[in-house]
Amino acid sequence: MTVLNSKIPAGPLTEKWSKHKAAIKVVSPANKRKLDIIVVGTGLAGGSAAASLAEMGYNVKAFCYQDSGRRAHSIAAQGGINAAKNYQNDNDSVFRLFYDTIKGGDYRAREGNVYRLAEVSGEIIDQCVAQGVPFAREYGGTLSNRSFGGVLVSRTFYARGQTGQQLLLGCYASMNRMIGQGKIEMHERNEMLDIVTIDGKARGIITRNLVTGEIERHGAHAVVIASGGYGNVFFLSTNAMGCNGGAAWQAYKNGAYFGNPCFVQIHPTCIPVHGEQQSKLTLMSESLRNDGRVWTPKKKEDAIKLQKGQMSPNDISDEDRDFYLERRYPSYGNLVPRDVASRAAKERCDEGFGVNETGKAVYLDFKYSIERLGRDVIEARYGNLFQMYEKITDANPYNEPMQIYPAIHYSMGGVWVDYNLMTNIPGLYAIGEANFSDHGGNRLGASALMQGLADGYFILPYTIGDYLADEIQTPRVDMNHPEFVKKEKAATTRMERLFNIKGSKSVDSFHRRLGNIMWDYVGMARNEKGLKYAIEEIAKIREDFYKDLRIPGEFNSMNIELEKAGRVEDFLELGDLMARDALNRNESCGGHYREESTTEEGEAKRDDENFTFVSAWEYKGEGQEPILHKEDLVFETVELTQRSYK
Amino acid sequence: MADKILKELTIRVWRQKDAKSKGKLESYKINNISGGTSFLEMLDILNEELINKGTEPIAFDHDCREGICGMCSLFVNGRAHGPDNDITTCQLHMRKFSEGETITIEPWRAGAFPVIKDLIVDRMAFEKVLQSGGYISVNTGGVPDGNAIPISYDDAEEAMDAAACIGCGACVATCKNSSAMLFVSAKVSHLAKLPQGRVEATRRAKNMVAKMDELGFGNCTNTGACEVECPKGISIANIARLNREFLSATIKE
Amino acid sequence: MSSFLSSSIGKKLIMSLSGLFLIVFVLVHLILNSFLMFDSTGELFNAGAHFMSLPIIRFGLQPVLFGGFIIHIIYAITLTLQNQKARPQKYAVQNLSNSSTWSSRNMFVLGGLVLVFIAMHLMHFFVPIQIEGNVHDDAQLVKALFTNGSMGLVYTGLYVLGAILLGLHLAHGFWSAFQSIGFSNKIWKKRLEKVSYFYAIFVAAGFIIIPLYLHFFA
């Protein structure tokens, strides 16, 4: 029998959330004033939760590592946010959004959670409009929608190519209002290092003030982790430089289970790596695939010439171009889902048909749509993106095809939570990308913003009351409680250990090594041998890390290398767990592709019989193997089918 | 896409131990930088070399490296976000520099943005201005349907133009008076152009300007440098609107 | 209201209103001066000058005019001092030529130089005509200054220089005043800038042509 209790309410799918809301406890306004909540992270999930909880009357302490809450990486989301408003009268509905999300996630998410997400999606739009988010409008004054990959209706709301920014500024403005009223205590440039549990309940956190280097104690009645994803385990990703899995990882190390760590999303349209010294990858919007055709040369000699820079793509005639997505997937063509497009690009490049000097790029060509629609139309649609591409690469996409290659983008996996978004540690919650919840094995475009805001505005504020209603008698925790003293000491010791290695290599050099292993063996295509090799290699990198790390500067002041070292230490452990999870899940599912589990044509093959479960990993201590718990996924409403894009 | 290689560059950079210490410009040589390398990657490379030599790396703010989070700053060769238009420092590439060039990198300079370390400044003043009124006073829940209040296409677009501000502080950094008027006016305009924000527009303008003045930013003299150096091209027409809102707030009193 | 006047925007409003007032004055002054060119006998100009010496003008409008100047100067000094303070540590390298015009960045310097010019100008004409009151032919006094031997050339040069400084000051000041009172947007900014440049060139050219005309043709 599993130790996991997902607490999904019984009853019909459509009534689960409303019945649950009616059943859970509520805290009175007078008592809310006595209760403190810590929120770690100020992205869409953390920001919206912090603002909403403070408005309700709780005392909120919010933390972020950036210099302002407004800079969380939610800000970089371009495309839009989904909501089942059916404003376009195209027969969209809560059920349709639910179904698309479940199917898009390759049937590895909970029906109950996803349905709830679809249910509250409409309210999110209303809320954002009320906050002053300048969504795109029609001339008549109503909200405009666009369509997005993998679905048949137009349900994506957007604010130019900056939807994430505008939504984040919306909830950040609400936060600011609460900060101004003294209901939120904001701690910028602060990084969480540990969670303090007392009597089995989460009661606070230990942080490092990134400006002074001081280790600080912060107490509360509940702790919410909203620290985003862990894509940076790959070193190169579309995540912000500072994005880290630290807070989620500390939750894990304190006993919270980590769900589906191997599920990460690889985005097919990023600007390729240009050299050894690159630090960051840039995403080009997925919308480009609407009008661009993806190809590589048919002849290997052409590819070799392109790699050596002896030939221009425009020299290759149409007959010698291999439009491999159109060839392999005639019905969806260039619009196959992200995971499929990414793997196909990798397959071509692995076969030696890559088109840049590293051999790791394919073309995304607008020549055909420019011929068909005219340059003006393409410019109106993608002008900004083309300009951005040209700024970065110095190549003009109107005249020659763009070069693209897949890159790590989003982590579906994360801290395991129940229906209330609470981890298995009472009082410890995880929301947004930091939890494992709603996207299963693969996330659909424009759904990350929806999930973050759903959790923060409309789910956590209710469900946290169910727990806090029993905590109203609990006094504020004494900051000198032995657990706080112990955890502070542990955090200091941990940082000192890293600082005092005094080796010869930079943090980045280890991070880069880890990233290479992760990308090669725990990336787009995985197999048993590679994963086992990765686990061994990661162990070696860890060993070297503790022997040869060098952190210049001072301990008790701003020390950027020390910050990074702590994050990379977490990534080294997280990478190991990802590889273990990937090894365990011997099926191909969503973003997780096991070469052992494919159809005869080389397409991904899911194994519902053996793997229709959430992997929830339990930490057993340094040097110990983690234990896998399985939460069986029960599908009462949808029927599981194999995805096909042929 | 073959980019040129810059064989040698001299990087003159502001080093300052902490807020209390006195800083100074120090020079470093860096070799073989590809034109396709971003400016911040160049600094990463330089930092890697410094670490290998046992020197403390240069501290600078950065995060998304996609030009949207607003965390990166840097005054490069006398210009906010360096020698290119409509970009942030993270979007600046080394092909904009030439062989043998000396590149001077300084932090944002403003009394309201004190240096924390090296190139990192404290932009909390911006946060405080926003906390004084840069929002619509609405709680979560209980709001009307998104389509209940029609908003004209042009108003939505104009609001979006102003809302595009990333809060990087280039306007203050480049302004000869260290004025924050572009930043404040962008928020005031964004919200004033929408019916939801119109309700408390004058009050907002008054409170935000009062806070801005209190924090020691300079006065706007309409040189217009801010809108040129703004990575998002926010127009100083917003400043005129702020002046208008502020004036009408006073008249109504 | 007091909080308004002490706020940055309030102070700038005063700068712009006093500036607009002075802009109007400059135009009136130019029109009056142009009489020197249109009537070589000087009678027209003398009539204008006489009108300006009427008690209603001298004791009614002149104090207002001086008040306008003084307010404009005091607020310029206050704002400039505050602006200096807002950046205690200067940049080692600063390149603003790409992003703003020279005159917009140097309004205080330009204003100061214009003030020096005005002081000289008052010594030349205002003091003898209005204070000492012993001049009978004002036009002759003016003509004499610009034609009197080698010094005539020097004064002509100084007055041309003064007009150029004033023009530069106005080129930014004119539209900037409208911007500060909030009368501008994306469309009007461009229009106002054009009007601003036209006005500045018109005024500067006018004030340049008059001394040159007097020096060479009178």
From TrEMBL, chain A:
Listed under GO cellular component are: plasma membrane
User: Its Enzyme Commission number?
Assistant: 1.3.5.1
Q: Which one Pfam family would you cite for this protein?
A: FAD_binding_2
Q: Which residues form the FAD-dependent oxidoreductase 2 FAD-binding domain?
A: 36-449
> Where would you find this protein in the cell?
Cell membrane
Task: Kindly identify the residues recorded as the active site.
Answer: 338
Cofactor requirements of the protein: FAD
Q: What is this protein called?
A: succinate dehydrogenase
Biological process annotations from GO: anaerobic respiration
Domain (Fumarate reductase/succinate dehydrogenase flavoprotein-like C-terminal) spans: 511-645
Q: What GO annotations for molecular function exist for this entry?
A: electron transfer activity; flavin adenine dinucleotide binding; succinate dehydrogenase (quinone) activity
Catalyzed reactions: a quinone + succinate = fumarate + a quinol
Q: Which family does it belong to?
A: Belongs to the FAD-dependent oxidoreductase 2 family. FRD/SDH subfamily.
Which organism is this protein's natural source?
A: Ancylomarina euxinus
How the protein sits in the membrane?
Answer: Peripheral membrane protein
The family database entries (NCBIfam families) matched by this protein are listed as: PRK07573.1, sdhA_Bsu
Q: Report keywords, A-Z.
A: Cell membrane, Electron transport, FAD, Flavoprotein, Membrane, Oxidoreductase, Transport
TrEMBL record, chain B:
Reported cofactor(s): [3Fe-4S] cluster; [2Fe-2S] cluster; [4Fe-4S] cluster
Q: Which InterPro entries match?
A: 2Fe-2S_ferredoxin-like_sf, 2Fe2S_fd_BS, 4Fe4S_Fe-S-bd, Beta-grasp_dom_sf, Helical_ferredxn, SDH/FRD_Iron-Sulfur, Succ_DH/fum_Rdtase_Fe-S, Succ_DH/fum_Rdtase_N
A Pfam family reported for this protein in Swiss-Prot or TrEMBL: Fer4_8
Question: For the 4Fe-4S ferredoxin-type domain, which residue ranges apply?
Answer: 156-186
Q: Name one GO biological process term.
A: tricarboxylic acid cycle
- One MF term from GO for this chain? electron transfer activity
Could you list this entry's UniProt keywords, alphabetically sorted.
2Fe-2S, 4Fe-4S, Iron, Iron-sulfur, Metal-binding, Oxidoreductase
Report the PROSITE patterns cross-referenced here: 2FE2S_FER_1 (PS00197), 4FE4S_FER_2 (PS51379)
Q: Which Gene3D superfamilies match?
A: 3.10.20.30, Alpha-helical ferredoxin
Family under the similarity heading: Belongs to the succinate dehydrogenase/fumarate reductase iron-sulfur protein family.
Q: Give the protein name, as stated in the record.
A: Succinate dehydrogenase/fumarate reductase iron-sulfur subunit
Query: Origin organism of this chain?
Result: Ancylomarina euxinus
Q: What is the lineage of its organism?
A: Bacteria, Pseudomonadati, Bacteroidota, Bacteroidia, Marinilabiliales
From TrEMBL, chain C:
Its keywords, alphabetically, are: Membrane, Transmembrane, Transmembrane helix
Which residue ranges run through the membrane?
Answer: 12-36, 56-81, 107-131, 151-175, 196-216
The record's SUPFAM superfamilies line, in alphabetical order, gives: Fumarate reductase respiratory complex transmembrane subunits (SSF81343)
Write out the GO cellular component annotations.
Answer: membrane
Q: Does the keyword Transmembrane helix apply?
A: yes
Matching NCBIfam families, A to Z? sdhC_b558_fam
Name the chain's protein.
Succinate dehydrogenase
To which species is this protein native? Answer: Ancylomarina euxinus
